[in-house]
Amino acid sequence: MTQTANHAHPTDNEGGKMGMWIFLFTELFLFGGLFLVYAVFRAKYSDDFHKAAYELDALIGTLNTVILLVSSMTVAMSITAIQKGSKKLAIKLLLTTIFLAIVFMVNKYFEWHHKFDIKVYPGSEVLQNLERGELLFFGLYYMMTGLHALHVIIGMILLVICIFKIKSGHIISNRYLLLENSGLYWHLVDLIWIFLFPLLYLLT
Amino acid sequence: MENKTHISSYESHGRVLISLLLLTMLSVLVTWMEFGVFTIAVALTVASVKAFIVLTWFMHLKFESNFIRWMVAGVFVLFTLVLIITFIDYFFR
């Protein structure tokens, strides 16, 4: 039944993918703008940035990097699975991805919670009394990781929708554009983290 | 169209992940060793290599049409230009 419907209205895969890429470009410039602000202030207040970056937990940062990289692989594998027609495996891989995303967010929660405990949060008195460069660093840290975490949540929602669409038979081995585009979105989340991680956590 | 679709194998995804994890290890090690001024250059180079790998294999650009590939390349060139112009403005203000 879906086959005939598919035949009458062939989905424009190439166009659909191109549209997703164009959307990803806007995302790139959204984060790119923040990276620019970071780069200029880092050049201006390099000592303060070094000192402030020291406060971040590089271990949690590294752990979250590994988690995101593995989750990127499971999403890519789920596309392979659906192309080969194994629905169950595709769903399992997507569930793994969502699980990893939750672990990422839990880590993020503990990381932020610790910051809040030592009274380092936007607008706090401790933060106001720090050097100007440190204040800017933490402002950028919260903005960039916060915006990134929002993308993780949106990505999780997209993947949950994909699971339901696989179950209902709307995503099948020859029609999986939604899964492919959600995968692209998920890889973008990973891509941004690849740059956030060394810039915020490692360069102390 | 349908039969032209490239299906990446599970093994190739696994290999891509291993190379990404090795590069992550490298960037952590590099910051421990502290190369001074070069640390940021090395860290960003490693990050760029990782980004290239994700774009090429996970995001499947290796097997996309030339049009999409050039579009992506063009956007990265555009961002680099914006970066350069910002820093020219910052340094010669």
Q: What does it look like?
A:
The complex is a heterodimer of chains A (204) and B (93). Chain A has 204 residues and is mainly alpha-helical. Chain A has a single domain, classed as Cytochrome c oxidase, subunit III, four-helix bundle (Four Helix Bundle (Hemerythrin (Met), subunit A)), CATH 1.20.120. Chain A is built from 8 helices and no strands. The termini of chain A are far apart. Chain B is mainly alpha-helical and 93 residues long. In chain B, helix 1 (10-33) packs antiparallel against helix 2.
Keywords for this entry:
heterodimer; A: 204 residues; mainly alpha; B: 93 residues; 77% helix
Quick take:
The complex is a heterodimer of chains A (204) and B (93). With 204 residues, chain A is mainly α.
Query: How many angstroms separate the termini of chain A?
Result: 59 Å
SSE-based structural type of chain B: mainly alpha
Q: What's the number of domains of chain B?
A: 2
Radius of gyration of chain A: 20 Å
Number of helices of chain A: 8
Shape of chain B: flat
CATH class of chain A: Mainly Alpha
By DSSP, the count of extended strands of chain B is 0
Tally of individual domains of chain A: 1
| Biggest beta sheet attributes of chain A | none
- Gyration radius of chain B (Cα, Å) is 17 Å
Helix content of chain A: over 70%
Contiguous low-pLDDT stretches of chain B (5 residues minimum) are none
How large is the share of residues in beta strands of chain B?
A: under 5%
The largest chain-to-chain contact, stated as pair and per-chain residue counts, equals: A-B, 44 and 44 residues
The total beta strand count of chain A reads: 0
Average pLDDT number of chain A? 92
